Amino acid sequence: MNRILMYLAMSLVAIGNNLRADDNVETLRPVTAAYTVELGSSHLTDTYLSPIKYDGWHAAFNYERRQAMRFDPEHWTMRLEARVGVDCGDNIARNATMWNLDVSFRWGMMRRWKVADGLTLAAGGSTGINGGCLYNARNGNNPVSAKAAWTVNLTGYAAYNMRLWRLPVTLCYQPTLPVTGAFFSPDYGELYYEIYLGNHSGLAHCAWWGNYFRLDNQLTADIHFGATSLRVGYRCDILSTKANEITTNVITHSAVIGVSGEWMSYNPSKGLSDKARIISALF
Amino acid sequence: MRISVIKYILVIAVALMSTSCHKVEEFADDPRGNFEALWTILDEHYCFFEEKGVDWDAVHDRYARRVSDEMTREELFNVCSEMLAELRDGHTNLSSPFNTSYYRQWWSDYPQNYNERLIQQYYFNFNYLSTGGCDYGLLNENVGYIRYGSFSYTPGDGNIDNILYYLRGAQALIFDVRDNGGGNMTNVEKWVSRFIGQPILAGYISHKTGPGHNDFSEPFPYNYNPAQLGRIRWGKPVIVLTNRSTFSAANNFVSVMKLIPGVTIVGATTGGGSGMPFNSELPNGWSIRFSACSVLDADGHTTENGVEPTEGCAVDMNPQAALNGHDTILDFAINLVQSGTLDR
Is the CB of B202 inside 8 Å of chain A's CB atoms? Predict the structure, then answer.
């Protein structure tokens, strides 16, 4: 316990020192932003709607923003992500369709280490919310399985700079793994009508890996063409929950394509000091 | 230090692998697989095994031996339909591309007690009004009459205002839900709210909390409130006409209306159907609907077997009188109004 307190105190001192250092040397923290779309396959199961697995397509739009943190930009960086995803699958007999809508928002902060030339590793935490629903049109009283969650996640990335022929390329692998939080689930055989009538007991669940498992893996390559980059990659997002004996599995594999770029705010009237340091969001 | 870090990583990795995707039981898409899937869905979700005294395991044994991999889809459908009929439940249907199974005895074993044409012709001479899923008009005896054929029709608040305003001069209202097979529970609340002046306990809902036959939640009480201010509410006597085909949401409507002072239920015992249905499906794509969530009346009793008319008001339609243009259930209600014994 004493060790932890000592570590926290030292961290605060270090952060304070860095803040003072910032007063002397101008630090510019460019923002790396990316807009991407995903297209791929999805596998949907929600036993509130059906015990049958539905297979089909997945599409999503993502916005990602990264920036070195103000307090210790050399070592700490943040990532903000917003995502809207849609899945559509058919049952084995191909006579019913299930839709899935998922909207998520995450913000996280990571400590990074430059472990080798061009290679940076980062690890940290994030928190996020997501909401949406699965919809099966042919169900009468149970056509929808609503989803909502707030999670605290482990996250990180491994980024590596390389060259592909003459083009500079940044490879980045970033996993996100929720470890706890809270999520919504109706009871086993509970109709939403009963919830509408006012029975709200047992709807919120504390999340842990045993009942809420999500692993979001993204591997991307930013191919730099001057200020703008082409982002291509692969994403595998696995969500598996089990609460009140209701199991939900949403697994997507998708190709990622989009644009990313680095930009920063700069006031020409103030000029830029010779000592100014530019600290990238990723490295 | 390194060893302990590796240990932690290994523990996390093992935890992740052991908790990744939760398994869902899968059944083969063949006659046996589909039969077992159907039986299991009902076994884990159906809500009336206890009330109906159905030994579902014994049912499995009886019907599983009739399933073989060589049977046609029609043969499999027939075996599955017969198995479902053991539940004696009008809310339980198996739907395939070529047929939908029904358990019909809940109404076919009883007199129909309703003839729509008879009322349209002999009581209104085909001069009645229609709006919001309702046919309505003023009977010769200055009694208002509303025929609401299905709770699937959602009348607007304005529709109901217009109907009740049109009938405002009547000495009483007859609300006919014979042959009303149910629909949306929200429409039950919508109509009941026009007949009450203060909130009432409408009943209880109890849902399944797990796959066990006795896994049920504590019954949750639910209330209905009067229609909001500015809406027309009916304060005079009401007679609700019922028959055996008054089912599901209509059955629930009758059980709630029966609680209201000044409301009389006339006709035959309703058809029940108090289990709110869920849908699921089999590997071959057939859809199954079944009672999953029990709605109880305000006394906490099931109405799965129907709601009885008010004491002394059980009436059947006389087929001979019907041939002469008389609906004896409707006549009974009109006489009840004219007798002056109804008060509110």
Answer: no
Nearest beta carbon to residue A92 from set B209, B278, B283: B283
Side-chain-side CA neighbours of B27 within 13 Å: the count stands at: 21
Residue of B235, B205, B200, B250 lying closest to B344 (CA atoms): B235
Give the DSSP letter of residue A278: E
Whole-model pTM above 0.90? no
Q: At a CB cut-off of 8 Å and minimum separation 6, what does B126 contact? A: B120
ipTM attached to this prediction: 0.89
Question: How many CB contacts within 8 angstroms connect chain A with chain B?
Answer: 124
Domains and CATH numbers, chain A: 2-278 (2.40.128.100)
Tokens in use for B234?
């009916």
d(CA B158, CA B150): 18
Pairing of strands B200-207, A97-116: unpaired
> How many residues does the structure list for chain A?
283
Instruction: Give the integer Cα–Cα distance in Å for A282 and A269.
Output: 28
SS3 B36: helix
Q: Is B222 on the interface with A (CB under 8 A)?
A: yes
State the average pLDDT for chain A.
90
CATH of B109-274+296-339, one of 3.90.226.10, 2.40.10.10, 3.40.640.10, 1.10.10.10: 3.90.226.10
- Identify which has the larger pLDDT, A141 or B131: B131
- Contacts of residue B337, Cβ cutoff 8 Å, sequence gap at least 6: B141, B143, B171, B172, B174, B237, B239
Residues of B in contact with A199 (CB under 8 A): 205, 220, 222
Domain boundaries, chain B: 109-274+296-339
Mutate: best of B23, B193, B293, partner A, most A CBs <10 A: B293
Which letter does DSSP use for residue B66 in this model? T
Q: Is B145 strand, coil or helix?
A: strand
CB distance B279–A94 less than 8 Å?
no
Confidence of residue B7 (pLDDT cuts 50, 70, 90): low
